[in-house]
Amino acid sequence: MECEMCGKKVSKTTKIIIDGAVLNVCDDCAKFGTPVIEHNKFKPVEQPIKVQLPDKPQPKVVAAKKPARRVNEEDLDIVEDYAELVKNARERLAMSQADLAAKIFERKNVIASIERGELMPDLKIARKLEKILGITLVEKSS
To answer: What angle do CA 92, 94, 99 make, to 5 degrees?
Structure first.
């Protein structure tokens, strides 16, 4: 074997740590680092472990779902006073704009723009706001 620090040919090396690097070094160079203590984390298994599999896989019981009634997005509109509704509902729940934004996974400035009436929420955001705030923002267009 060869010392990884000085290059000397030796019969036995010692593992040490020097500045975070683990090196195999001779006894003379071992004083420059900290010895590495290796622990055997795994104990040998004395008896084999027997695993018993079920005879037949059990069929999964799946409940039949009713088909969801789809509403054409073109038939839906956002209510005219959406800005006031969102702001009043948020304040009623004692939430900050940042809290509301975090709950619907949007940025705070999006909520602020919606409340000022500068940004009309798309259907996805409107549905999230309806759910969190307990208000109705989406209506069928006439």
So the answer is: 120
Task: Give the CA count within 13 Å in the CB-facing half-sphere of 84.
Answer: 3
pTM for the full predicted model:
0.50
Contact of 119 with 108, CB cutoff 8 Å:
no
User: Within a 13 Å sphere around the CA of 67, how many CA atoms are in the beta-carbon half?
Assistant: 3
pLDDT in tens, 59-99: 777 666 666 555 566 678 888 899 999 999 999 999 999 99
| Residue 124 tokens, joined | 């996805």
Determine the Cα–Cα distance for residues 129 and 123; give it in Å rounded to an integer.
Answer: 10
Q: How many residues in the chain?
A: 142
